[in-house]
Amino acid sequence: MSLIATVYRRAFGRRNEKMVVEYADDLKLFPSRPTRWGLLALGVLYIAVPLLWEDTPVFGLLSGRGVSLNTLAYAGVFAIATIGLNLLTGYTGQVSFGHSIFFGVGAYFTAYAGSGNFLGISSWPLWLWLPGAAVAGFCVGALVGPFALRLRGYYLVVVTLGLVFVGEHVFRNWNSVTGGNTGRSAAAVDLHLGPFDFRELEIGPWTFDEDQSLVWLIWFFVALVAWLVKNVVRSRPGRALQAVRDRDVAAEVIGIDLLRYKTVAFALSAAIAALAGALYAPLQLFIGPADFALLVSIQLIAMAIVGGLSTIYGSIVGAVVITALPRLIDGLSRDFGLPGVAARTSDSGIVTVSSLNVIIYGLLIAVFLLFEPRGLAGLWHRIRTYFNAWPFSY
User: Which of 24, 140, 274, 355 is most buried by a 10 A CB count?
Assistant: First the structure.
């Protein structure tokens, strides 16, 4: 075997010299040179995509089919919420159907504090309402977290499902804060951060419109949250969370405090979802109880499963795919017509576009759970492993 390995190294150089990933390498944030180059490419895309979206053939084709810069901003919001859900479900093993409520807590906090008078402060600035929303979500998650100590699996799903109905009832009846069934405007929320106004960003002689400004703002927080959560899961508490996910009884035997870690996992996950909701409110401009119903929780679960559980980048990819897909289908059905799909209320068809989207969510969840439980991240891992092991891959 040593002779074969020597011949292989001499024939193919250092490209595949290290086939076994060491534990220390797994803990590195950017373990390889391709990873660092990929990070640099993402930085370039972060700057360039909002500038070039309408002017390039590929992006122009997408924007003509309903996948606009505004869609990219929504994808960023849901990417943040999905990262929070993945921290709870993928890394801690606690399935939650209640994340739409944490999402709504952040959105309503922003709409109320950012455009009203709260705690003696009129129209909270961005640097204040954004962390305030995260704190509000953390507190609500900390109240729910202890239920996870004695419940797991289907029982925890039922409890978090009940949370959706309780939260929706509160959103519909707390008129002074949420506006009740009518909803509440978030159009007046302050988006100034220092000298920058993200309603209409000005940098030197250049002025950028609201869609471009919000994409930069939201995706900055996507990168920040992804970096923070990645560091959490690499740390000692993160490894404890994964031990709770894999074998909670064994984890308790070796000294891990289940109540503490499950509660903290719920609270952190809820805080991240509330942060996403805080960015959703000024993007949506007007929010109501229907924006935080059970379907939103299903969408977040679909994003986590399609992207890949227990992966940060999978959460982002899943959010982009699930957010863009309905808008792409709507654009295609309006432009070309899809058989049996009613694109407009006046059209005849077997299903509407919104019903078709729900069907697609269910199919995607079922297909990925059956054939690729690790989601798109798992597919990428298979492809990367195949080429890393070539020509010995099979």
Answer: 274
Q: What is the pLDDT of residues 71-128, one digit of tens each?
A: 899 999 999 999 999 998 888 888 888 889 999 999 999 998 887 767 767 778 888 8
CB 303 within 8 A of CB 36: no
**Residue 131: cis peptide before it, omega within 30 degrees of 0:** no
Distance linking the first and last C-alpha atoms of the chain = 19
pTM over 0.90: no
Query: How many Å apart are CA 382 and CA 163, to the nearest integer?
Result: 37
Rg (CA), the chain: 23
Confidence of residue 226 (pLDDT cuts 50, 70, 90): very high
Q: Which residue has the higher pLDDT, 240 or 280?
A: 280
Locate 385 and state its tokens: 């492993």
For residues 78 and 307, is the Cβ–Cβ distance under 8 A? no
Q: What is the pLDDT of residue 17?
A: 43
CA distance 122 to 111: 12
Q: Which two tokens stand for residue 128?
A: 């204040």
Question: 386 pLDDT band (50/70/90 cuts)?
Answer: confident
Task: For residue 309, give both structure tokens.
Answer: 């559980």
Q: Would you mind telling me the total number of residues written for the chain in this entry?
A: 394
- For 201, phi and psi rounded to 5 degrees? -75, 135
Helix (H, G, I), strand (E, B) or coil at 286: strand
- Distance in angstroms (rounded) separating the CA atoms of residues 266 and 98: 11
Structural element, H or E, at residue 382: helix 375-389
User: What φ, ψ does residue 90 adopt, rounded to 5°?
Assistant: -75, -40
